[in-house]
């Protein structure tokens, strides 16, 4: 997590890439959890190099974030400022 102007940013580092958890990424995670999406496809959607990086990303994202509905995430972010 990183702080930026009073608002928390949730960032996952995979290799040399930083992925900020935002509504778009959360939609991709939601699709990954609820459909038969391969790690290769997840890597492609997140702009990662391969399925191993996608696997590392999934391991590093807290479960509460993965299971947060994107609409609730948006409301939470708006409430933070």
Notes on the structure:
The protein has 81 residues and is an alpha+beta fold. β3 and β4 form a beta hairpin. Strands 1-2 form a two-stranded antiparallel ribbon. Strands 3-4 form a two-stranded antiparallel sheet. The model has no long low-confidence stretch (mean pLDDT 89). The protein contains 5 helices and 4 strands. The two termini are 16 Å apart. 56% of the residues lie in helices and 17% in strands. It has a single domain, classed as Arc Repressor Mutant, subunit A (Orthogonal Bundle), CATH 1.10.10.
Observed structural traits:
alpha+beta, Arc Repressor Mutant, subunit A, single chain, two-stranded antiparallel sheet, 81 residues
Give a topology summary.
Blueprint: E1 2-4, E2 7-9, E3 11-14, E4 17-20, H1 23-34, H2 39-46, H3 51-60, H4 63-66, H5 70-80
Antiparallel strand pairs: 1-2, 3-4
Helix pairs in contact: 1-5, 2-3
First-to-last CA distance: 16 Å
Alpha-carbon Rg, integer: 13 Å
Globular, elongated, flat, extended or rod-shaped: what is the shape? globular
Structural class given helices, strands, pairing? alpha+beta
Average predicted confidence as pLDDT: 89
Q: Could you say how many structural domains there are in total?
A: 1
């Amino acid at each position: 997590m990183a702080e930026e102007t009073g608002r928390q940013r949730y960032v996952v580092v995979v290799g040399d890439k930083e992925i900020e958890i935002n509504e778009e990424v959360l939609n991709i995670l939601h699709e990954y959890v609820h459909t038969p999406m391969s790690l290769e496809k997840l890597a492609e959607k997140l702009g990662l190099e391969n399925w191993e990086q996608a696997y590392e990303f999934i391991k590093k994202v807290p479960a509460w974030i993965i299971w947060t509905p994107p609409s609730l995430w948006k409301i939470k972010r708006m409430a933070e400022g």
